[in-house]
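User: My notes are a mess, but here's the protein and magnesium ion's SMILES. Can you give me a structure?
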Amino acid sequence: MQTGFSINGSVHSDMPLIEVRGLVKQFGGLRAIDGMSMALKRGEMVGLIGPNGAGKTTMFNLIAGALKPTSGAIRIGDADVSGEGAEQRIGRGVGRTFQIPRPFAEMTVLENVLTGAQGQSGERFWMNFLSTRKVAAEERAAVEKARALLDFVLLAKLQNEPARVLSGGQRKLLELARILMADPDVILLDEPAAGVNPTLLELIIDRVRALNGQGKTILLIEHNMEMVARLCGRVIVMAAGKLLAEGTPAEVSRHPAVVSAYLGGVA
Ligand SMILES: Nc1ncnc2c1ncn2[C@@H]1O[C@H](COP(=O)(O)OP(=O)(O)OP(=O)(O)O)[C@@H](O)[C@H]1O
Ligand SMILES: [Mg+2]
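Assistant: No problem, the inputs look usable. Here's the predicted complex:
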């Protein structure tokens, strides 16, 4: 199930995989995203940081197609996708996790992962699967893949448990497995370390690094700067819906505007 972009590598090898230009998102009187521009190269792992309310999750919602921009453009490869919705964005290889994962609590862990399957509408797929109990070849392949992904995130032993038994950290890993069902090229991770115990945190870091090693482009929202510094060579800092700074983790952490934004001052 390849979902590549229509990028002619030889001609556009230096073209960003994702590019956002002059993005604005207005919520009533609030300009949550206020002229944000940024770009991701294929295969990069980039941190997206900023104080609470900076607009990081809203950026994910815009890049993933869950929200439409008020103005500005979002490009994936050579396509302007600004007007496309979330389903189409998945088809273009964008996968995103949610800041607060909300798995289907009564469905099993395995069934939750299967909802990430692309091609079959995820929902129709598992309804069908559950009602008929008839597993066609394609469905068997999806189940095999879901099991392999649960192995990857060390949740295989819990595959038949209802998702409600999972800890916060395990829910983050379940989400990761779910989005990997659609073979994303770009993975947007919204605070994968928040509320996660130290052991699970190391597993998450290891798995994120492995995915990047497989060539996946990763944008990581995270307040845990140690995690960001360990994983990302480049960090984008937002405040009040704008780009505040950009650089290596060491550069941004001593940048005066970043320091003052984190101390609560308006940069
Ligand atoms: N759907 C919405 N409707 C109205 N306002 C919203 C909506 N989504 C976000 N906002 C507002 O937009 C601003 C940016 O929110 P966002 O969730 O993007 O911040 P964030 O950087 O992810 O913060 P945090 O680190 O706390 O998760 C906030 O003021 C928030 O209240
Ligand atoms: Mg957020």
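The chain has eleven helices and ten strands.
User: Great, I'll file this with my notes.
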